Structures are given as C-alpha cells and as structure tokens.
Amino acid sequence: MEFTSIPKMARAVTVPWTREHRLIALNVYGKLPFSKLDQRTPLIAEIASKMGRSASSLAMKLGNFASLDPLLQKRGIKGLSGASRKDREAWAEFFDDLDTLAPESESLLHDLFTTDISREVDLLERRAVRLVVDRTSSGETETLAVTKQRRGQQYFRQTLLNAYGIRCCISGIEIPRLLVASHIRPWSQFPQHRLDPSNGLCLSTLHDSAFDSGLITLDEKLRVVLSPKLKAHFPHKLLEQNFGAFEGSTVQMPHQLAEPSLDGLKHHRESIFQS
Asked: For the HNH nuclease domain, which residue ranges apply (predicted)?
C-alpha cells in the first residue's frame, strides 16, 4: 500500500505587538465587556483585521490586559495568564498618562477605519464598528489641540458607558442618546482627572444635570442622597418618580475599570452638593 504524506501547514505570520497596537488594544479593552473579549466577537475580528492581526491574537491580548484590571481582580474574575512585561508596562503607562495616551489611542483606532476627521469610531453597539458624524468637529479647520480634546472625550464617554453596561447607574435607563459620561470632579477644575474612568459615573441626562448642579450626590456607601433644595419642591409627581424613588438606593457598580473614586465623591459632597 502506498501512503501519501500530508503536506505541512504553512505557519501563520507572526505580527509583532508594537506600541501602537498595544495602545489600540488598551482602547478597545475599555469599550468591551469582559464577556465579549473573545475571538468570535465580530467587532474584535473586524478591528483585528484592520490591524493586520488574527482575531485570536487580539482577543488574547485583551484577555491578558483583563488580568491586570484591579476591578476585575476585586470581583474575583481572572483574565488570561500570559501578560508580558511589556503588557504590564503598557498598562501602567496608559493609565498613568491618560491625558496623552487616551486621545492617541483613539486617533490610532480612528485611523484604522477612516481618514475623515469629522467622523468618529463608535463601539457602543458592539455588533460592529460604526462611523458616526461628530457634530462638534469643525472639519479641516480644526486644530490638533481641539482634535486631541475631542478624541479624549470620545474615549472617556465610550469607556465609561461600557463599564456601566450602557445604563444609568441610578435609574437604569439604557438608551445611549440619553446617557452622559458625568464627571465626579469637574472637568474645568481637575484636568489631571478629565479622562480617568474612575472620575466618572454613567448617568441619564436628567441625573447628570442634577449631580452636576449639586442637587444629588452619593454617600460613602454609594447611596443616592437628595439635596434639601431639591426635596423642597416635593410633593411633585415627576420629581418624586425620578429622584425620590431612588433616594437611599445604592447605584449600580461598573463591571470593569471604572470603580468610582471615593475621594472624588467626597469632594463632590463637600464642595458641590447643596446640603
């Protein structure tokens, strides 16, 4: 009997993990829930293809980054065990310098899909990458500084909304157009915390406005507290439905990366809340 040898499979080309690819992966990590960090997730396959990588390569890198996420560790969730020294260094550098690296990572992700600066990459639908028109863009006349600020805000919003499962942490509203990445410490006063996910809460536009103006806050146990100036308008059906119903309730916690800063909330109670 004559046997025919089986031809050897061609080895897959190994694409090195550059600094830029790690920045893109860190950006994507913040915008996907842990349950979606899988090579079978279409969005991961789509982004990996644009990077010239396999879906399994990107998914493994995201799983390695998950092992470094302190909030997942606190919840007893483990990522993959293959995080390298460079992965750990990239993670530390990224979150130590979000003001610079978050906008840079957003621009790198953007440029994978388009050169149109008036459009931004939106991952919130999770089924596929969407290119959406950014109405705050001034097009070709926009300065690099303005683009950097806009890209930073884009990163902050998508990362924060994802961390809270794309729903208001007080009311549970889950319509993205009605949600705001609300800053705990004000944007204008604390530039070093502008893009830090732990300096944010995912709130409905109504609750964001109330939080920003000091009509509501959160106590040390993350329970909703109403200002006497708000309660002075009770009884009022809509106010009681939208605020009174949640007084004393604990807000929904983020799934990953963005546990709200207790120091930031203390500042909000002491300096912004109308007690």
From this structure: 168-219
